[in-house]
Design a protein that fits this description.
- It is a single chain.
- Strand 19 and strand 20 form a beta hairpin.
- About 30% of the residues lie in helices and about 25% in strands.
- The chain has a 5-stranded parallel beta sheet, sandwiched between helices.
- Helix 8 packs parallel to helix 9.
């Protein structure tokens, strides 16, 4: 912990000296440095919210003022699609970029990736950060790297087979899509050389039902979850001994778990919002950043896998801002995903949230797999409605769409439509 405190004090020193965003935000902190403890850090340093840095970028386009070094020091620019619809940009120096590649290497180390592996990246390779850090980190590890940018799903499946790729990196939704299309082509898991599927971008990687669906098709491949964000970089890797649990990379982040509506810490094992401070991304840091991710606070002590990195049991449970209250019941997208994915004959689905008689209501539209017999479709819808009733104590209407009519997703799935 002394090493973390030392990194925090160094970060605060540098940002207060030359970072206009934090020099203004933390103007009264300089007299308190160096901080004597992590408790003092939590008590004296306010949290940073997404609203603040979005407002800063809008007020000072195109990059905002959260820059610790002169503009000439920055060599990379990536962006995230902000809630306002305008892209939010993030700059990195060569040093902070290398630090993020080292963080991604922790993901590969957990999956025991080596120069013997052939990695396929089923991403578009647009301006988002995750593709590039995953690809370049794999190159540094000496792996054979194949970009799937610009390919159709069918072409990607052929590339996976032709190149005998052993590692696949993509979103959980797209991994399911690859499995569905491969099955339609008459391919089976044994036709692939995959031994590891590393997923990110959605909470699905830590949902047992999603993992089970993937391993039905690729029984020889272990699913490895990971999460990160453009604004903070690669954050976590899956525990080798605890599937569906994520270790936060302690060399790169100081993590806290707080009540979503306050600055109060939650007890170990209890649910709260993940708060992150970037220890190595000094060029464009975030200090006590409210990520909006819901997690369980880590238990203290050494993990069974031997890691000292904090472990988040269950991974990312959902998003604070994604919760919908339907007739008094709190519903998170991950809960719907877990229930839907337990039905192997559902190819895709959409959720509609709407208001009726001044009350919030929910409806789920499912698309059965093309091979499902028509007379089995009503039973599938009835079974899913029953599963919702049992799991959520809530009646959720289920409608059926024709095969091939619901949207497919390569990036983060956008299944929830609010009207």
């Amino acid at each position: 912990m002394s090493d973390v405190l030392e990194k925090l004090n160094r970060l605060l020193d540098q940002t207060l000296a030359s970072n206009a965003f934090y020099r203004s935000k933390l103007s009264g902190l300089k007299e308190s440095l160096p901080l004597a403890s992590l408790d003092a850090f939590g008590q004296e340093v306010p949290c940073t919210t997404k609203v603040e840095w979005i407002a800063d970028q809008q007020a000072h386009p195109p990059y905002g003022t959260n820059l610790t070094f002169p503009m000439a020091s920055y060599v990379r620019c990536h962006q995230t699609s902000g809630t306002t619809g305008a892209p939010m940009r993030w700059l990195d120096t060569a040093e902070s970029w290398q630090a993020m590649l080292e963080a991604w290497d922790c993901v590969y180390a957990a999956a025991r990736a080596s120069s013997e592996d052939r990695a396929f990246f089923a991403f578009s390779f647009g301006p988002f950060l995750g593709f590039w850090t995953a690809f370049e980190s794999a190159q540094k590890r000496g792996m054979f790297c194949l970009s799937g940018g610009g390919m159709t799903t069918e072409t990607r499946i052929k590339a996976l087979v032709d190149h005998q790729c052993s590692i696949l990196c993509c979103t959980p939704t797209y991994a399911l899509r690859l499995a569905q299309v491969a099955a339609e082509q008459g391919l089976h898991g044994k036709d692939f050389a995959l031994r590891a599927i590393i997923v990110a971008g959605e909470p699905g990687g830590s949902l047992p039902a999603v993992r089970s669906r993937l391993q039905e098709f690729w029984p020889q491949a272990r699913i490895w979850d990971h999460h990160g964000m453009t604004e903070v970089g690669p954050v976590s890797y899956e525990c080798p001994e605890h599937p569906c649990s994520l270790h936060v990379i302690q060399d790169a982040f100081h993590c806290e778990v707080l009540e979503p509506a306050s600055d109060d810490a939650v007890a170990p094992g209890q649910q709260g919002e993940l708060i992150l401070t970037t220890l190595s991304r000094i060029g464009s840091p975030l200090i006590r950043y409210r990520t909006g991710d819901l997690v369980r606070a880590p238990e203290p002590g050494l993990c069974r896998c031997g890691s000292e990195d904090p472990r988040l049991e269950g991974g990312i449970l959902g998003r604070c801002d994604d919760m919908v209250v339907v007739r008094g019941v709190n519903i998170y997208p991950s809960a719907i995903d877990q229930i839907v994915r337990s039905q192997a004959t559902i190819a895709e689905y959409q959720v509609e949230v709407f208001t009726k008689d001044h009350l919030t209501e929910l409806k789920v539209v499912i698309e059965p797999i093309a091979s499902l017999q028509p007379d089995h479709v009503p039973r599938l819808a009835s079974e899913l409605a029953r599963d919702f009733q049992v799991s959520l104590a809530l009646r959720v209407p289920v409608e059926v769409a024709q095969p091939g009519t619901l949207p497919r997703f390569e990036m983060k799935a956008k299944r929830w439509n609010r009207r």
